[in-house]
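Q: How do we represent a protein-ligand complex in a form that can be generated cell by cell?
A: Start from the inputs.
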Amino acid sequence: MFGLQSECMLHVPEQYHTLSDYEGAQPRWCPSCGDHAVLTAVQKVCREKQLPPEKTVFVSGIGCSSRFPHYMKTYGFHGLHGRPFPVAEGIKFRRPDLDVFVATGDGDCCSIGAGHWIHAIRYNMNMTVMLLDNEIYGLTKMQTSPTSRKGTISNTHPHGSILPPINPLITTLGVANASFVAQTVDWNPAHLYSTLLAAHSHQGFSFVRILQRCPHFSPNLFAEEISNPDLTVLLTHENGIEAVEEVQKMYKNSVVHDPADMNEAREIAQREDLIPIGLFFCDPSKEQYDKYGASNIGFSPQKKADALNVEFEKYAV
Ligand SMILES: Cc1ncc(C[n+]2csc(CCOP(=O)(O)OP(=O)(O)O)c2C)c(N)n1
Ligand code: SF4
Ligand SMILES: [Mg+2]
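Then emit the C-alpha cells for the protein with magnesium ion bound:
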C-alpha cells in the first residue's frame, strides 16, 4: 500500500533566473562608459531578488543612459526626453504588481524633466530610480547640463558654464514626501550594488544619484576621486547601505549618519570638499500615491460604470 497522495507528489523547483535571463541587447555605450557598470549592478540585483523578467519594467527618457531598457531582457519603455516619470507612474498606478525601474540622465531628469521629477518624488510611488549623472548631455554630444559644475567647457558654453549647478540630492531632499535618497558612484561596483539593492527593497520612490563617468566627453571629471579614495566619505549606519569589508577598507573617511535625520542629510548633501556616498534619508512610512490607483482593479466594465454613475448622481440637479 502506498502512502498518502501528498507524499508521492513531485516538487518542481521554481525557475532560477541567472544573469543571462536579464541580459538584453548588446550595449552600444562607449567602452569604459559608467553606464556599463550600472547595468551589471542592476542585473545582479534582479538575480539576487529573482525578479521575474515578465513582471519587471525598465522605463527611461532619452539620452545615452536612457538606452537602458534595451539592454535588459525585461519589459521596457524607452520614452520621450524628460518624461520617464509620467510613464513609470502610469504603469505603477494601474499595475502595482510590476516591479518598476527608471533610468534617467541629468538632462532628462533635472532639465527638461524637472517638473515631473519633483512631483514623482512627492507621489512616492514604489519604484527604483537611477539618476545616471555624468554632468553633461552625452547623447547630443556635449552640451551643458543643469548638473555641470561651474566653468564646464561644452558646446553650449565654449568659454565655460556660468551658473552654479543643481545638486540633485539637495533638490530631492527638499521635496515634501521624499522617502529614500542615496548616492553612489559607478566606479565602486560593491557600493553601487548594495545601494541599488537597498533602493529596490525600499517601499516607495527610491532615488539613487549615481555619479557616472563619461570618458568620451569628460574623461577627467572624476579622475581625482577615482585615484584617491580619501576624497570620498562613506555614510555608515545600521539602517544605512550595507558596506562590505572591501568598501570599508577602501574609504578611510566615514561618518555615522542616521538616515532618519533629514537635517543632517541636507547638511551632508551640501558638502563640496568630499563626495558623500551612502544613504542620506529613508522613511518608509511616507504616503504612497500608487496605493490609491489600484482600488478598482478587477472590477468588471459594468461594475466600473455603476460606480461612476453613483458618483455622477451626487451632482445631479
Ligand atoms: C523634447 C526633446 N528635446 C531635446 C531632445 C534632444 N536630446 C536628446 S538626449 C538629450 C540630453 C541627454 O542628456 P542626459 O539626459 O544627461 O543623458 P546622457 O546622454 O548624458 O546619458 C537631449 C537634449 C530630445 N530628444 N527631445
Ligand atoms: S557619450 Fe559618454 S555617456 Fe554616452 S555612451 Fe559615451 S561615454 Fe557613455
Ligand atoms: Mg548626462
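The radius of gyration is 22 Å. The chain has eleven helices and eleven strands.
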